Amino acid sequence: MTGLVHHFPDQAAAAERLAAALGSAARPIALRSFPDGESLVRVNPAPGTALVYCPLDQPDTRLVRLLLAISALRDGGAERVVLVAPYLGYMRQDVAFNPGEAVSQRVIGQMLATACDALVTVDPHLHRTPSLADVVPGIVAVNVAAAPVIAEAIAGLVTPETILVGPDGESRPWVEAVARPLGLDVLVGEKVRHGDRQVEIVLPASARAAGRPALLVDDLISSGGTLRECARLLTAAGARIVGAAATHCLASDADLAALAAAGIAPVMATDSVVGPAATIPLAAALAAAIRQAGLS
Ligand code: R5P
Q1: Do 27 and 7 form a contact (C-beta atoms < 8 A)?
Q2: What's the 222 CA to ligand 1 centre distance in angstroms?
Q3: pTM check: above 0.90
């Protein structure tokens, strides 16, 4: 029997879509916050496999609640716990960039590997770590690529003239994977980050975008500063921005408004993180990967 999909209250819509795609059912995890900030969770226990749908944006809050829920599921008879975390936070700090810093990716990965039997995620930010299996040692690790669903979602927005633009070298694999099925041209820049919200981008071949529709592609939109700077350079080069597409969008309402003010519209992302940009459902791709890995 396919495992139930357990989820926290704010993830009901995406968890229900996943459960439907798996031919299973969703079960809410009840959550209560005490006045001192502690959380109490209550699950609907069931034997067999428990799928826990919990994207790890806002990870400092979600991780504790997740660990509590997994423990309760195991206490209630779950023999196998599969974490479905379409967005996996803390992946960017994969080395100590400065003396004394924690290697957050390693810490969080080991914590998840201890708690779960398998992890399913989407386009984790693994630029220096060879594979997801290295992040969560000893458990099954499934990395789902969002490019096919993003390509399908933007198909109606682009024409053969459209150029897909990645702001930096790290975005290249995503831009190329989205462009390939659509047969589109690609332009990739170089970025230097000076601070959380300060980036410098060079688009050496920006002349190729002149007079053409340009759609920005990245794995992650956080503050949106990267896309705004990229759009500024493209506009200066004579391109017409027709939108942006990313796997994950963490941007606040204010940052989304700034993207719109910079002429970047629509901003589309998968539903890995709840928010106004999350218009591309991942349920079918997640369900296919879960079934293929024998995790349902
Ligand atoms: C960086 O390597 C990522 O691919 C994104 O470009 C970056 O995280 C975006 O951040 P922000 O939106 O804050 O500029």
Answers
A1: yes
A2: 6
A3: yes
List all residues whose CB is within 6 A of at least one atom of ligand 1: 167-168, 170-171, 199, 218-226
For residue 7, the tally of other CB atoms under 10 A from its CB is 25
Query: What digits encode the pLDDT tens for the residues 26-51?
Result: 999 999 999 999 999 999 998 999 99
Split at pLDDT 50, 70, 90, the class of 99 is very high
Residues with a catalytic annotation lie at 191
Quote the CA–CA distance of 200 and 216 in Å, as a whole number.
16
Domains observed in the chain: 4-145+281-292 (3.40.50.2020), 147-271 (3.40.50.2020)
Q: pLDDT tens digits for 85-96? A: 999 999 999 999
**What Cα–Cα distance (Å) separates residue 224 from each residue in 24, 86, 119, 122, 178?**
36, 20, 28, 20, 20
* 3-state SS, residue 209: helix
